[in-house]
Amino acid sequence: MTFKEILNIELYHKGDFTITVYNIFLILVVVLITLIVLKIIRRFFKRFINKQEAERRSYWSIYLILRYVVWVIIIVFLLESSGLKVSVLLASITALLVGVGFGIQQLFSDIASGIVLLVERNLQINDVIQLQDGTVGRVIHIGLRTSRLKTRDDIILVVPNSNFVNDKIINWSHMDYNTRFSVDVGVAYGSDTKLVTQILLDCAARNNNVSLSPKPFVRFKNFGDSALEFQVFFWVRESFWVENTKSEIRYAIDDEFRKNGVQIPFPQRDIHIKSTVEHAK
Question: Which of 71, 77, 132, 270 is the most exposed place for a label (fewest CB within 10 A)?
Fold first, then answer.
C-alpha cells in the first residue's frame, strides 16, 4: 500500500461528510504550523514591547486580538477542508442554539465582553485594578471568556469578562504609571501645624517607593471633633503594593511625632450619668 493510498483511507463517512487519514494529517500539520507561527509572533511582540515600555500594554492587546483572529480563520479552514460547510453547520444547529440560548446567555455575554476588552483596551495586562467588592489585583491574563487577576495575597482570581464591562472598575494604572495615594493623620489641638506639615512631607519623601516627581504635598483637611486632621499625598509607581508603602509611612510618622512631641489625641467623649431616686410611698 502506497503512502497516497494510506492518506485516502476513510476513517468516518456519513452523507457528504468524510474524514480520511489525509484530513487528520492536515489538521495536525496546520495546527502545528499555527502554534509555531504564533510563538514566533509572540516573541517578536515581547521583544518589541521591551523596547517600547510605555506602550507595552497596548501592543499586548493587539497580539491577543491577532491570536484569536488567526485561530478562527484556521478552524474555519479546517472545517471547510474536511468537507463540512460552515454555513451548513451553522444552519443545522440554529434550532439547538435557540433552544439552549437562555442557558448559555451568560457565556455569550462573557465572550462578547472579552472582545470588547481586547478592542477598546480599557483593561490590559499588568493593570492594577480594584473590583466593585474592593478586591485589588494585577491583571495577568485576558481571555476570551474570563480573565485572571493576582491579588495582593498571591491568590489567582478568575473573573468573567462581563464583570469588567458591566461593573464599576477602578483602574489604578490606566492613564499613568504614577498613581496618587494619601495617608490621613490627626494631631492634638495646639500642635505646631507647620512642624506637622514638614514631618509629613519628610516621611513621605524618604520612602523609597514614593516617586520623586510629582513631589508629596500636605493638605490641612479639617478641624475635627478631637484633632486637627491632615492628609499627606504622594505618588507611587508600584500601586499594587501601596498598602505596604502606606504602612511604612505611618511607622515613620509615628516615630517623628514621638521625637518632636507631637501628640495624636484619643477621641474625647463626654459621659453624663443621670441618677433617679425612687421615693417609696
Answer: 270
**C-alpha span between 248 and 238 (Å, rounded):** 14
- Identify whether the C-beta of residue 110 lies closer than 8 Å to the C-beta of residue 146: yes
How many other CB atoms are there within 10 angstroms of residue 163's CB atom?
16
HSE-up of 185 (CA within 13 Å, CB side)? Answer: 29
* Alpha carbon distance 202, 184 (integer Å): 15
> 230 pLDDT exceeds 60?
yes
pLDDT score for 88: 55
pTM, entire model? 0.55
Look up residue 241 and give its DSSP letter. Answer: G
Q: Residue 265, class by beta-carbon neighbours within 10 Å (0-12 exposed, 13-18 middle, 19+ buried)? A: middle
Residue-wise pLDDT tens digits, 187-213: 999 999 999 999 999 999 999 999 988
Question: Residue 248: how many CA atoms within 13 Å on its side-chain side?
Answer: 15
- pLDDT at position 119, please? 74
Distance CA 273, CA 281 (A): 25
